[in-house]
Write a structure and sequence with these properties.
The protein contains 9 helices and 7 strands; from the N terminus they run βαβαβαβααβααββαα. The chain is α/β, with parallel strands linked by helices. A 7-stranded parallel sheet has the order 1-7-6-5-2-3-4. α3 packs antiparallel against α9. The longest helix has 14 residues. It is globular.
């Protein structure tokens, strides 16, 4: 492995440099969003504000390479739910490149295209602390770290120690997951305050998660 920063970069340093830098800084939050929940929105808001980013791109995956055989619902529904979830935040946008490309969604392929098309933008890729230890297994991660800045957000019981350079952002520990939301819907339990009302309405309208996906 080539020599890299071995410590976490302080968010305040990034925020202060952002104020002096004319380059645009954009965050990316990827996932299946099956469905998107308030935890996703909180993470996006905290990272954007703590790092002084211009906006956050929500990046739904077509076929996530790290999902270990898990199935997800049709992309059109996941896209619509993300659109509903972020509708009131003009600084949150949806990025459809992985959906449009189809197949396995490798972060390297996506970021390479984005950086080629938008050379004036610095991208900050958000991951949970639970994903940090798996970074060495990511497709072309050595090339990827030269294209983006990784941002790790805390997850209970997970460490952010790594040989790869990353920024650590402390966010509220909200114990919400998409699998929890799906299970509650299948059990006919309330999901109020777990996902946005607009997403609840979409799920009810389309009859999603009546069976496990």
């Amino acid at each position: 492995m080539s020599e890299k920063l071995s410590k976490v970069i302080e968010p305040q340093v990034i925020f202060e440099s952002t104020l002096l830098d004319e380059r645009k800084k954009v965050g990316i939050l990827g996932g299946t969003f099956n469905p998107p929940h308030l935890g996703h929105l909180i993470i996006a808001d905290q990272v954007k504000n703590q790092l002084g980013l211009e906006k956050i791109l929500f990046l739904p995956s077509a076929e996530p390479p790290h999902a270990q055989g898990k199935k997800t619902i049709d992309a059109k529904h996941r896209v619509k739910m993300v659109e509903q979830a972020i509708a009131e935040r003009p600084d949150f946008e949806i990025e459809l490149s992985e959906i449009q490309r189809g197949g396995k969604s490798y972060t390297y392929d996506t970021i390479r295209r984005l950086t080629e098309e938008n050379p004036e933008i610095d991208y900050y890729f958000i991951i949970g602390a639970d994903m940090v230890e798996n970074l060495p297994t990511w497709y072309k991660v050595e090339e990827l770290i030269n294209l983006i800045q990784f941002v790790a957000v805390n997850r209970p019981s997970y460490s952010v120690e790594t040989d790869y350079p990353l920024i650590f952002i402390d966010v509220p520990n909200i114990e919400i997951s998409s699998s929890l939301v799906r299970q509650k819907i299948m059990d006919h339990c309330s999901v109020n305050y777990l996902i946005p009302d607009s997403v609840i309405q979409y799920i009810e309208k389309e009859g999603l998660y009546d069976i496990e996906t």
